[in-house]
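Why Ribosome assembly RNA-binding protein YhbY? Reviewers of the renewal asked for a concrete example.
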Amino acid sequence: MLTGKQKRYLRSEAHHLNPIFQVGKGGVNENMNTQISEALEARELIKVSILQNCEDDKNTVADEIASGTGAKIVQIIGHTIILYKESKENKKIALPK
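Here is what the prediction returned.
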């Protein structure tokens, strides 16, 4: 689990990022989880946007992506999810203790 301090730090780091994935009518699938995993390995911190036509609840979508990729949910704001996963090879973000 992430501490409050770590979440605050990650939120400030994610502020300037644009969403690089969109979840639409089809919801979350295996292929999307694979692509998100690869993006997390490269970047560690990403935003995912949930489109208006998505039939699933935003919390359900966030949970599905988190469990499918092993990422941690930093925050859900409106229709945007911020995800963090420590990279094995491209470690860029040093979390506060």
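The domain at 4-84 is CATH 3.30.110.60 (Translation Initiation Factor IF3). This is the kind of structural detail the renewal will allow us to pursue systematically.
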